[in-house]
Amino acid sequence: MPAIAPEIEGALEEGVKIEFLTAPVEVICENGRAVALRCIRMELGEPDESGRRRPIPKPGTEFEMPADTIIAAISQEPQWDGFELPLSKQRWLQVNEWGETQVQGIYAGGDDVGLGLVSIAIGQGRFAAEAIDARLRGKPLVKPERPPLIGPDRMKLEWYQSVPRHERRKVPVEQRGMETEIELGLSEEEALAETRRCMSCGMCMDCESCWMYCTNSAFERLPKGQHYRIKLELCNGCGKCADACPCGYIEMR
Length: 253
Hints:
Layout: H1 5-13, E1 22-30, E2 33-47, E3 53-57, E4 63-66, H2 118-137, E5 169-170, E6 183-185, H3 188-195, H4 209-213, E7 219-220, E8 229-230, H5 240-244
């Protein structure tokens, strides 16, 4: 079963023994309780149409693994009983770009519409909230244009101080339990320090470099929090401002 690297590392830290190319065959019970799990070794067969070498059982390699508790953890799937909503062939809820299902007024996101990251689910919730708000206010639904991607070539990395990121602390292995949250997250001070590492890619950070390097005084400073105003009648297109901008906000065309 696929797993991401942090999950594998965490399991090894906690003393989990991983049996590779092994499949369960039968739960062995005595007096109504599990006492062992019968398994069989697998080997990779020939590639199929997708190019994947699927595991196939190796005859004569069955063995028993003693156990008093067996947890079926082969994946998770939503329970749709009682919802009566149309599903896709992969048994996910079908939604439009705003998260609305085929039943007007019912929205869905996260693991109900497909596998994904927490950040994706948060974004889907935001789109659904905007759609609901627009419907209640009688306003049209318009998605904002995505800002252009700023590549490393537009950034002046030497302008920034190199500061290492804060790594999440974890509960020591000996203190971990069934209901323990393993990753402790960041303290308020650490979280604020992380925000100061932001390089403001493509966003003006009010560093004043363009204003200082413009020899024609084409940049006019505005009240704090507003962008500079460019006096085009004074600009000669030299490009010094774009060259000096550390975050790629200014682009010469």
